[in-house]
Design a protein that fits this description.
Elements lengths: L4 E9 L5 E9 L1 H9 L6 H31 L4 H7 L9 H8 L1 H23 L3 H30 L6 H32 L2 H6 L4
Length: 209
């Protein structure tokens, strides 16, 4: 505990002529100011999380932006969709494949938007901004939903690979299975980050109760 008082000593002459030492206890405003307004200590978890997200989301943003620009300049409107739709005649007439062929450009913008928002929130986390705290929680929740949808989408895609011959089927099965594994593992990771950020000591770093 911190003693928020200090001793004030004064001399006082009594009516009989004797000098007395008067000791008073008065509040020390400087000590009170230091102990009452001192900001919470910044945790290493938030700082580490912010830098990891900045690196990962920054790299992902650059790569996804380049990928989207490549699709915009290399394929005319509708051409890419027609090329992907041509797979329907090769035994891949699955609902997931049809949906991806018809909305491929729009689907490619979603990961880019996600990466940019995560990068923005991570930068704000370094400064312990309350809006960045809320944004990061929302994006982690969106990440859980996105990876859950990715698992379902990959399973539907694998279901449409049965018509392909073995040299095409097995690499596709291996790649799809690996993507399912990664997406399934990311769901608990995002959930753990949400639980850690909602801890009382972490919320106090952002001025939240």
């Amino acid at each position: 505990s911190v003693d928020r008082s200090r001793l004030l000593c004064r001399t006082h002459k009594s009516p009989r002529g004797a000098w007395l030492l008067v000791v008073k206890t008065v509040p020390d405003a400087r000590v009170m100011l230091m102990t009452d307004t001192q900001p919470p200590q910044r945790s290493g978890f938030v700082t580490t999380l912010a830098w990891v997200l900045i690196i990962l989301a920054g790299v992902a943003s650059v790569m996804l932006a380049a990928q989207n620009l490549f699709l915009q300049f290399m394929f005319s409107p509708g051409e890419l969709e027609r090329l992907l739709g041509a797979q329907q005649g090769m035994g891949t007439d699955a609902p997931a494949n049809r949906f991806m062929a018809e909305h491929f450009r729009s689907l490619m913008l979603i990961p880019l938007l996600f990466a940019v928002l995560v990068l923005t929130g991570a930068i704000g986390l370094l400064g312990r901004r309350p809006w960045a705290y809320g944004l990061t929680l929302v994006m982690m929740g969106v990440g859980m939903l996105w990876n859950g949808a990715a698992v379902v989408l990959h399973l539907m895609t694998l279901a449409g690979l049965g018509a392909f011959p073995g040299p095409v089927l097995w690499p596709g099965m291996f790649g799809g299975g690996f993507q399912i594994l990664v997406s399934a593992l990311m769901i608990p990771v995002f959930g753990w980050i949400i639980l850690r950020l909602r801890a009382p000591e972490i919320r106090r770093e952002f001025g939240l109760k």
